[in-house]
Amino acid sequence: MILPSLTIAPAGQKGRGVFATKNIAKGTVIEISPVIVLSVKDRAIIEQSVLTNYIFEWGNSKRKAILALGYISMYNHSYDANCEYEMDYDEDIMTITTVKPVKKGEELCINYNGVPDKKDEVWFHHLIKDVQ
To answer: What local confidence, expressed as pLDDT, does residue 130 receive?
Structure first.
């Protein structure tokens, strides 16, 4: 399920991102998407490709990874995210929910640390411009 008021559009130096085509209230589930679970071995292979920029750690041990379907791999990072993600290891799905109101035209972002306002540096910290 992807809310019909989402679209993929250019996001400046970040490439592409997910944007709202209308106002979205805080607490709105905007996406529930299946994931493709990668074994530890498959993860090692994927990490040698451009897809490494689009995978998430997976499972209690964080040794596996997933490639999320839908728009999930297109959400850009922000240390002041307006969305959060939840991983369901049993159902192999991820859910994106707004944690702030989002205005029409605004980019929807997640914090790659897993918590919307967590400031721990992410692996590509030196490349991003929205450090706060």
So the answer is: 45
